[in-house]
Amino acid sequence: SLESLGAIGNEVVERAEPDPLLNEGRPCHHIPGGKARPSVIERTDEHHPRIEQAFRKYFFRADVPPSLTSGIGTSKSADGEDSTKTNVIATTAT
User: Fold this and answer.
1) Cα–Cα dist 13/18, whole Å
2) Residue 64 has pLDDT above 70, yes or no
3) Helix, strand, coil % in the chain, rounded to nearest 5
4) Positive or negative CA dihedral for 72, 73, 76, 79?
């Protein structure tokens, strides 16, 4: 229907229905932020599964490229101790 359409420049764009997964919520605990009351922790935690589901629906979390992981391993430091070397720039928990 025409009321579900919007115009951007010369293009007509159909509007999608709102996705309840994208409703605002508390995405994380505020650290540092002092002591958190149990009720604040519960409210934050209750939104986490929905927010994570929305993230997985709309975003692609790519694997770390081999060129960044090739430097991960152990090597000898100047004093002869084993040390771990990491070249990973950024990752996220899955």
Assistant:
1) 15
2) yes
3) 35, 15, 50
4) positive
